[in-house]
């Protein structure tokens, strides 16, 4: 069975001949700006594995960039989608109510850790749409025009979310961007100012946030402070809990809404259903939370959840969309919630993290190029440097490791502002044997490139 298989390359080169022919067709028919950096053309996938059109078997540690936490082609998910397809594909939310839409909203209101006794949820189609709608909701609820975001942030590729995203290679030539987006430093403790302890560094980053109110926008004009509990494209940098507590206190002091972007960190990846549960447990839950990626196991869907008080302040007609809460995607999402709760996917994430972090930390001690290892649950990053002392970003070795691993049947992906972090987003249904095989390939590629 493919879901139990191990990586196996049977062609003399990757891509094989069939995959190469299809990739040539891709190059002729798809814009060059939409890149595919891997030599793979999928034929079928199960669990954490997929087989390409030439019969090569790959272990996927990217998981659709966090979309496949529940794995490829989960049989129960397939049956749920099929059952819905037999009834109807779509019911536009402003025209016809479908019960699945309401049931999923009720479940989201039950499990999403935002402030408020009564909550409401709206649906969209992508993470970027969710983040943009969160900003619209915050502005409408507060009557304020501005937001604060952070260095290292990635929030999407709509015009608003390109403005919110830090890395400008995602928005080259796309301006002008919306006004009222102000940026300050995210607490990246591995690269904190020299000479500071972690506690001193956290205070430094809090002070930097407070400076925005003096140098960029008065606090009374700020609708929301938006951040990822664990930065994704920024290099899998976790937000320290003491910093989050301080952000919560700042928001409460000035009447600002705290928005957590859990597009990538959500759905059991962190060892909780949502990383914001750690914040809620520490008394600093967000006001608004966005999620997407693994919400529907691979079908397009996203969600924005906030208190009833916040949601009911939104001006009619300003949020919504034709495909939001599509019936088939909602049916899949309901099954995802059921399976993740029943099979303890957060527990799976923690068990995987224990095993991987132990190995990654071994590498940190063993290899000069491994500078830092970090993460929350199974959202883990390994940062590569030229020297431990200098911490110079080493994107070159990352590119070689990623390319070499693909040739051996393991898909890895880079991240980070300077492309020097390898991220772990493997489906959480990965087997122990597959995990061992992946770690072996990963380390072999480190050895080959140092």
UniProtKB/TrEMBL annotation:
Which class of enzymes does this protein belong to?
Answer: transferase
| Keyword Transport part of the UniProt annotation | no
Describe which pathway this protein belongs to, using the record's wording.
Amino-acid degradation; 4-aminobutanoate degradation
Protein name per UniProt: (S)-3-amino-2-methylpropionate transaminase
User: Which reaction is recorded as catalysed by this protein?
Assistant: 4-aminobutanoate + 2-oxoglutarate = succinate semialdehyde + L-glutamate; (S)-3-amino-2-methylpropanoate + 2-oxoglutarate = 2-methyl-3-oxopropanoate + L-glutamate
Q: Which superkingdom?
A: Bacteria
Family stated for the protein in its record = Belongs to the class-III pyridoxal-phosphate-dependent aminotransferase family.
Query: Under which EC number(s) is this enzyme classified?
Result: 2.6.1.19, 2.6.1.22
User: What is the protein's species of origin?
Assistant: Clostridium aminobutyricum
Q: Which Pfam families match?
A: Aminotran_3
Q: Which UniProt keywords apply?
A: Aminotransferase, Pyridoxal phosphate, Transferase
One Gene Ontology MF term: pyridoxal phosphate binding
């Amino acid at each position: 069975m493919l879901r139990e298989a191990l990586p196996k390359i049977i062609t003399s080169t990757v891509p094989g001949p069939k995959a190469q022919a299809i990739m040539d067709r891709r190059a002729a028919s798809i814009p060059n700006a939409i890149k595919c950096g891997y030599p793979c053309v999928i034929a079928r996938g199960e669990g954490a594995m997929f087989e390409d059109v030439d019969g090569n078997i790959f272990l996927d540690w990217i998981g659709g960039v966090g979309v496949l936490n529940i794995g490829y082609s989960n049989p129960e998910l397939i049956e749920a989608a099929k059952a819905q397809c037999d009834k109807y594909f779509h019911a536009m939310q402003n025209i016809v109510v479908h019960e699945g839409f309401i049931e999923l909203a009720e479940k989201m209101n039950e499990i999403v850790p935002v402030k408020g006794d009564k909550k409401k949820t709206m649906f969209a189609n992508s993470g970027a749409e969710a983040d943009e709608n969160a900003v619209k909701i915050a502005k409408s609820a507060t009557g304020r025009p501005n937001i604060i975001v952070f260095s290292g942030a990635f929030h999407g590729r709509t015009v608003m979310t390109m403005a919110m995203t830090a890395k400008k290679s995602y928005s080259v030539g796309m301006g002008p961007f919306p006004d009222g987006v102000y940026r300050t430093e995210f607490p990246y403790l591995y690269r904190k100012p020299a000479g500071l302890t972690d506690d001193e560094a956290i205070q430094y980053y809090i002070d930097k946030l407070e400076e925005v109110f003096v140098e960029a926008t008065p606090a009374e004009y700020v609708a929301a402070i938006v951040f990822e509990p664990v930065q994704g494209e920024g290099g899998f940098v976790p937000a320290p809990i003491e910093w989050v507590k301080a952000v919560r206190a700042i928001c409460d002091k000035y009447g600002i809404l705290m928005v957590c972007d859990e597009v990538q960190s959500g759905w059991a990846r962190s060892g909780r259903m949502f990383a914001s549960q750690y914040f809620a447990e520490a008394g600093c839950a967000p006001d608004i939370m966005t999620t997407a990626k693994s919400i529907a196991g691979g079908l397009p869907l996203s969600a924005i959840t906030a208190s009833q008080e916040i949601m009911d302040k939104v001006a009619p007609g300003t949020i919504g969309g034709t495909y939001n809460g599509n019936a088939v995607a909602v049916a899949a999402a309901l099954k995802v919630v059921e399976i993740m709760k029943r099979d303890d996917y957060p527990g799976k994430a923690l068990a995987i993290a224990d095993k991987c972090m132990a190995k990654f930390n071994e590498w940190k001690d063993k290899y000069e190029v491994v500078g830092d290892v970090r993460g929350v649950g199974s959202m883990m990053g390994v940062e590569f440097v030229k020297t431990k002392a200098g911490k110079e970003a080493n994107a070159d070795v990352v590119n070689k490791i990623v390319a070499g691993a693909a040739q051996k049947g393991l898909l890895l992906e880079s991240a980070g502002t300077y492309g020097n972090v390898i991220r772990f987003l493997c489906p959480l249904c990965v087997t122990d044997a597959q995990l061992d095989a992946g770690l072996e390939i990963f380390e072999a590629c480190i050895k080959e490139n140092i």
